[in-house]
Amino acid sequence: MNVIGISGTPRKNGNSEILLRHALKPFENDGW
Fold it and tell me: SUPFAM superfamilies, from UniProt (predicted)?
C-alpha cells in the first residue's frame, strides 16, 4: 500500500506543509 499527501499551498515550508509532514510522519517511520 502507498500513502500520498498533496499540498496545494504556494508557500514553501508554510503551515499547511508543516501539518502535512506531521500527519505523514507515522507512515514514514513505519516504512510505508
Answer: Flavoproteins
b/e per residue 6-28 (b: at least 16 CB within 10 A): eeeeeeeeeeeeeeeeeeeeeee
Whole-model pTM: value is 0.68
Give the CA dihedral 5, 1, 22, 20, nearest 10 degrees: 10
Q: Which of 30, 29, 18 is nearest to 5 (CA)?
A: 18
Domain range for 16 is 1-31
Taken in order 21, 25, 28, 32, is the CA torsion positive or negative?
Answer: negative
**Looking at per-residue confidence, does 31 or 4 come out higher?**
4
